[in-house]
Specification:
Pfam families: NMO. Helix content is about 45%, strand content about 15%. The two termini are about 25 Å apart. The chain has an 8-stranded parallel sheet with strand order 1-8-7-6-5-4-3-2. The chain is of the alpha/beta class. It contains 14 helices and 10 strands. It has a domain at about 5-205: Aldolase class I (TIM Barrel, Alpha-Beta Barrel), CATH 3.20.20.70. The radius of gyration is 19 Å and the shape is globular. Bound molecules: flavin mononucleotide. Flavin mononucleotide binds near residues 21, 42, 142, 175 and 286.
Length: about 325
């Protein structure tokens, strides 16, 4: 399949793996890229730019296909040394960066001078237009159903994607709720040039996370995610567990007076406990509603091949048949 995104990124299939904290290590990124999609290493999971450089080198040993790095611009007290992270990306020969969180404008010149394709992930049409205006090459449009931070507008992809198509000139990728060939064809029909998947890629053989996490995703239904931190305007969609129950109880009790310190035990330092130790009750970790569509743990290649053959079947048999009457 050829789209503006496959052409831009030099990949075979229009399928991207979104950056995921403590999930997007070299093993997963390489497996997705070897399957013909674009794998992405999560930059800030590597504690220093030097460690990111090593992770990029490790990924390069596992694949000769293009892969990218995610850089998330968070509202933190101690700002990570982003220019040094970007330098590691450039020196590692990486040609695509997924930015997310805050506006990446301050770092665009450094990335564009090195010829990097910048895909900014955002949750609204207005932020997508801003990304286009500051020179991003593409955007990933993350609908309300997505795992992680869906923003505060609560617009699901059936509205958000065609709205993005109405306004944007640069190509965009549909993100949030994508799982299979049906998602891909639906996203293309709504104007996207490809799909970005997070949660679905966690439940794969190569995802370097504890088996408990993969099994929890397979066991979960579309009803099992919760939205946390709404009052802090830092909404996150997470899989429900007893830690999240406690967190939501505190949120209810505190109401408008809620501060991040009130819930820090359920949100800080949780990722290694879940992803490495497999402690499924530890607290909040991002997970999409798409868990309801995830029923197995295939290899990345099996998954990508299945998506592409299902998409082909839908386009050339089901839809073509309907269109012929
Ligand atoms: C466990 C997990 C961790 C994530 N961490 C990040 C992150 O560090 N930076 C980021 O930009 N997006 C992060 N995301 C969001 C994904 O890149 C992607 O946008 C999202 O998962 C898409 O929705 P889906 O899960 O429905 O596919 C994370 C998602 C998950 C599930």
């Amino acid at each position: 399949m050829k789209t503006r995104i496959t052409e831009m990124l030099g990949i075979e299939h229009p399928i991207v793996q979104g950056g995921m904290h403590f999930v997007g290590f070299a093993e997963l990124a390489a497996a997705v890229s070897n399957a013909g999609g674009l794998g992405i290493i999560t930059g800030l999971t590597q504690k220093t730019p030097e460690l990111l450089a090593k992770e990029i080198a490790r990924c390069r040993e596992m694949t000769d296909k293009p892969f990218g790095v995610n850089l998330t611009f968070l509202p933190t007290f101690a700002t990570p040394p982003y220019p040094e992270y970007i330098q590691a990306i450039i020196e590692g020969g990486v040609r695509a960066v997924e930015t997310a969180g805050r506006n990446p404008e301050a770092y665009m010149a450094q990335m564009k001078a090195a010829g990097i394709k910048v895909i900014h992930k955002c949750t609204s049409v207005r932020h997508s237009l801003k990304a286009e205006a500051i020179g991003c090459d593409a955007v990933s449009v993350d609908g309300f159903e997505c795992g992680g931070h869906p923003g505060e507008d609560d617009v699901p992809n059936f509205i958000l994607l065609p709205r993005a198509a109405e306004e944007l000139k640069i190509p965009f990728i549909a993100s949030g709720g994508m799982a299979d060939g049906r998602s891909l064809v639906g996203a293309l029909a709504l104007g996207a040039e490809g799909i970005n998947m997070g949660t679905r890629f966690m439940a794969t053989k190569e995802a370097p996370i504890h088996e408990n996490v993969k099994k929890a995703i397979v066991a979960a239904s579309e009803l099992d995610t919760r939205l946390i931190m709404r009052k802090l305007r830092n909404t996150e969609r997470v899989l429900n567990n007893s830690g999240v129950d406690r967190l939501l109880q505190i949120e209810r009790e505190k109401g408008d007076a809620l501060k991040i310190d009130d819930i820090v035990d359920q949100v800080a330092g949780i990722y290694p406990k879940v992803m490495i130790d497999g402690d499924m009750e530890a607290g909040a970790w991002s997970c999409g509603m798409v868990a309801g569509l995830i029923h197995d743990i295939p290899s990345c290649k099996e998954l990508v091949d299945r998506i592409m053959s299902q998409a082909d079947e839908i386009i050339n048999k089901r839809l073509a048949g309907m269109s012929r009457g």
